[in-house]
Design a protein that fits this description.
By secondary structure, this protein is mostly helical. It contains 17 helices and four strands.
């Protein structure tokens, strides 16, 4: 079979708008809608860029630098339409770079994480004391990596330029700024050396994934019938897991189209729940959807909207948590890094199982045997049903954040406000993860039994992250 090179992080971007000529006038009338969607697509990008020119001075050791860096990376992930697995890779390498540079604010409290991870060479050591400019070094390291794993370099460069100007306004000596940025760049390059060996580039050229036209396995689903997303993600080198299959979940319920079978009862459950969704359940499903590229079909018109990935949701929530608890720069970088590790290995673990069990989505079975016109509340993503990515990564992150902040840390999640959603309140990170998981049943895209087993898989990943990084309630700073 001939090999082809395909960039799955641009898989959805390749979906161009197809419009019948007779609907050109309709398209023009919808221009206002498209303008609104484009504004949402960039999240807070336009606002951030507009305010950058008026940015006040920022201290070189301020956590504000890292929050601005993470927001910019998230905006670029959205703008460049990276898929959830690829986005997790971006978050992991940029966050680890930020931490390995920022930790020099207090190395006694914040030891190297990459020294405890797989595949990293020893990190650079600064030639001089940069403790008062460690956050600036962290931002430089983050952007050095980001420029090599994303596409929108102009946006990153512009943000960095504005931030550097704000730091200069603080009165920090230029020599100190130069030393910090030089060190940050060196750290970024060291992180990129590991990224170059994680099999990402090689996986872009693997043979095209071919589906089997059988009802008991996954096949592309409506409305777009898109190709499988990142079918070889399990070949990406993990950060802490011994292998992608280290925490392989139990076998899913065997497929059966017999109405009295355990499998069909799961299908019936999805169908029944979908027909009686409450407004609260609809809000929960929408709040946690985080589909980075949703297509909207109106007759012959197809348009698309963009937003955060599931990993982006948890990263921005982490930013919100550390900001609300007045964490310093090193603590902020630590939290970003630990959460990103859980996301990265969580996606690899989940994707290994997805394309191993290769289970069909509810829409395929319901359309064939129950209601050919049925549509789920949420758009079905283009990969197999078992296990649930949202459930795995959310449970993994919840374990990590619980270790960092405790089992009863109550918080409000406002990360979805820019996308028109409300603020939701939770009594703990685990409660939030549980709600995220059940949202996939409300969305009509996962079975109830899948969600339970997926959460267990994610918990194992999260606890392994804590074990390998030696982070717990007593060591978390």
């Amino acid at each position: 079979m001939a090999k082809f090179i395909r960039e799955n992080n641009q898989l959805f971007a390749a979906k161009t708008m197809t419009i019948s000529l007779r609907f050109c006038l309709l398209l023009c009338s919808l221009s206002g809608l498209f303008a609104g969607l484009q504004a949402c697509n960039g999240t807070q990008k336009g606002t951030q860029e507009a305010s950058a020119g008026n940015m006040q001075s920022i201290a070189a050791d301020s956590p504000v630098l890292l929050h601005k860096g993470l927001q910019e990376v998230t905006d670029v992930v959205i703008y460049d339409i990276f898929s959830p697995p690829v986005a997790s890779r971006i978050y992991a390498y940029t966050s680890l770079a930020a931490y390995e540079a920022t930790r020099w604010a207090d190395t006694a409290k914040y030891p190297s994480l990459t020294a405890r991870l797989r595949g990293f060479d020893p990190m650079p050591v600064p030639s001089t004391d940069i403790s008062k400019a460690a956050a600036l070094a962290g931002l430089k390291a983050m952007f050095t990596v980001a420029r090599n794993v994303t596409f929108s370099h102009d946006s990153l460069n512009g943000c960095e330029k504005e931030v550097m100007a704000a730091v200069e306004k603080s009165g920090m000596p230029k020599e100190t700024i130069a030393k910090a940025t030089e060190f940050g760049e060196a750290v970024g390059k060291a992180i990129l050396a590991r990224a170059a060996k994680d099999n990402y580039k090689e996986s872009r050229g693997y043979e095209r994934y071919n589906v089997t036209p059988r009802e008991d396995v996954w096949n592309p689903t409506p409305p777009d019938y898109a190709d499988a997303l990142e079918p070889y993600w399990c070949t990406i080198a993990t950060l802490v897991l011994d292998s992608a299959a280290q925490f392989k979940p139990p076998r899913p319920i065997p497929y059966s189209n017999k109405k009295n079978s355990p499998y069909f009862k799961e299908v019936q459950d999805v169908f029944d729940v979908s027909r009686q969704l409450t407004k609260e359940q609809q809000e929960i499903a929408s709040f946690w959807d985080d589909n980075p590229f949703v297509s909207h079909h109106k007759g012959h018109v197809v348009f698309n909207s963009k937003k955060m990935t599931p990993g982006g949701h948890w990263m921005m929530l982490t930013s919100q948590i550390v900001r609300n608890t007045n964490a310093d720069a090193a603590r902020t970088a630590q939290c970003f890094a630990i959460v990103s590790i859980a996301l990265f290995d969580g996606f690899i673990s989940c994707w290994e199982e997805k394309f191993y069990s290769n289970m069909p989505r509810p829409i395929a079975v319901i359309n064939k045997y129950m209601d050919e016109t049925w549509e789920p509340f949420l758009q079905t993503p283009p990969f197999p049903e078992y296990t649930s990515g949202h459930s795995v990564i959310s449970s993994a992150v919840a374990e990590v954040l619980t270790a960092l902040y405790g089992d009863s840390f109550a918080f409000n999640d406002s990360t979805e406000v820019p996308y028109g959603r409300s603020v939701r309140s939770f009594s703990s990170f685990r409660q939030a993860a549980e709600e995220c998981s059940i949202s996939r049943l409300y969305g009509g895209i996962h079975y109830r039994s899948t969600l339970k087993l997926s959460a267990e898989q994610g918990k194992k990943v999260g606890n392994w992250v804590l074990l390998r990084t030696k982070i717990n309630s007593t060591t978390a700073q």
